[in-house]
Amino acid sequence: MERHTTDSRVKGVSTGTTILAVKFRGGVLIGSDSRASIGGSYVASRVINKLIQVHDRIFCCIAGSLADAQAVTRAAKFQLSFHSVQMDSPPLVKAAASVLRELCYSNKEELQAGFITAGWDKKKGPQVYTVSLGGMLLSLPFTIGGSGSTYIYGYVDAKYKADMSREECLQFATNALALAMGRDNVSGGIIHLVVITEEGAEHIVIPGDKLPKFHDQ
Amino acid sequence: MRRGTGNETGSFLFKKNKKKNPVLSHCSNKMAASVAVAGAQHLSSVSDLVPDWARQEVSTGTTIMAVEFDGGVVIGADSRTTTGAYIANRVTDKLTPIHDRIFCCRSGSAADTQAIADAVTYQLGFHSIELDEPPLVRTAANLFKEMCYRYREELMAGIIVAGWDKRRGGQVYTVPMGGMLVRQPVSVGGSGSSYVYGFVDSNYRSGMSKEECLRFVAEALTLAMERDGSSGGVARLAVITEEGLERRVILGNELPKFFSA
């Protein structure tokens, strides 16, 4: 889990951001804030959706340069759909993560984007993968990323439990994102969450006024 | 450029603009005549023979924390002091007494913070004798602030001042780098603090008891020590109340356990 401290040096629009993905009993939850900033002082968009659907039950979320991330995810989406047609079955989550990793690793000099991939497939069920800036691929029970993630390492280490229920997981992710958004100036806006299970993917949005409040608010 | 032997307490490193150390001259104190001029400033020419860590400044890259409760304060710190990648002291005591019921938690350059703490201890002791009563925590905090702000370019020090006095009870004041002063019910500092902002924000409640505060601080320190490379070792805690001072040490294997990926 890398600290994305390079956000202020990203040229153009950056998703100085907080993203996370958590495995729970029966599925995965992937979530992010909604702020895109330029240089840390101008919010280019306060409602962007950083959760990109690369296939029916596979989503990825992006951190770093928005342009790079969009280019990579478009390429990945194409490759995955082609692969899925060839195999005549839905792609594995690991395949999606690998495609992203290949793109990140081969172009590591030019790119400045990191990804979290989460999804459900028939072979291994719910999975979470992280592809870091230089192209390392790791499978984890949960992962956090983006500039705001620094502030919630302690919180997620303390609060994560394996095998949570869907409601517990939603609460955990919402709290974590809200805490990070409260401390990181380049994360903010609303919370986007996607819950992926065998049944499908459900998109949940938590607007600013419904965010959990903590002691100093 | 800073040179020095790195490890001596109270030894001073010449600062960037090569002025004589301001804290020294401010105080006109006995202090380290061992101003490490390091006349042997030829280290650069023997860079192969001198290990990396001997050329780096000693830093308390650290995690420090203080919480107010009704009747006093609980303060805590990790115990790691590093020179680059080498851990110069793995059992450091970063909780420094300034007066009977006033402590400070130090983070940043070890030399700078020790010097500042010594200077403030002297000034506060003198002030307390003049007043003929125990000093206020706010006074101590202001003395820190004066020094940290006046010499902000030369110093690298983030300090949390905490203690108990009769007028306002338990108080925590934070003086981060740059020299701001603000009172907060709970404050974290040092490099490891970034990782526990979320945990502290979510777990702090006003009106906690002494035991709850102790547990809260121990947990936060543990989480930070797990994630920050510059924090580690044992967790040192102290409780300051009207009655006095109580110090505790939680050894590495006794720290609370959390999930690890």
Give your account of this protein's structure.
The complex is a heterodimer of chains A (217) and B (261). Chain A is α+β, with helices and mostly antiparallel strands and 217 residues long. Chain A has one domain (5-210): Aminohydrolase, N-terminal nucleophile (Ntn) domain (Glutamine Phosphoribosylpyrophosphate, subunit 1, domain 1, 4-Layer Sandwich). Chain A has four helices and 13 strands. In chain A, strands 1, 4, 5, 6, 7, 8, 9 and 10 form an eight-stranded antiparallel β-sheet that branches. A five-stranded antiparallel β-sheet of chain A has the order 11-2-3-12-13, covered by helices on one side. In chain A, 55% of the residues are buried. Chain B is 27% helix and 27% strand. Chain B is built from five helices and 13 strands. Chain B has helices at residues 22-27, 110-131, 137-150, 193-203, 210-227, and strands spanning 58-60, 64-69, 72-77, 81-83, 86-89, 95-99, 102-109, 157-165, 169-175, 182-183, 186-189, 235-241, 245-250. In chain B, the strands form two sheets. In chain B, strands 1, 4, 5, 6, 7, 8, 9 and 10 form an eight-stranded antiparallel β-sheet that branches. Chain B has a five-stranded antiparallel β-sheet with strand order 11-2-3-12-13, with helices on one face. In chain B, strand 9 and strand 10 (182-183) form a beta hairpin. The model of chain B is unreliable at 1-19 and 26-44 (pLDDT under 50). Chain A binds chain B through residues 140-143, 150-158, 160-162, 175-176, 179-180, 182-183, 214-216, and chain B through 194-206, 219-220, 223-224, 226-227, 258-261.
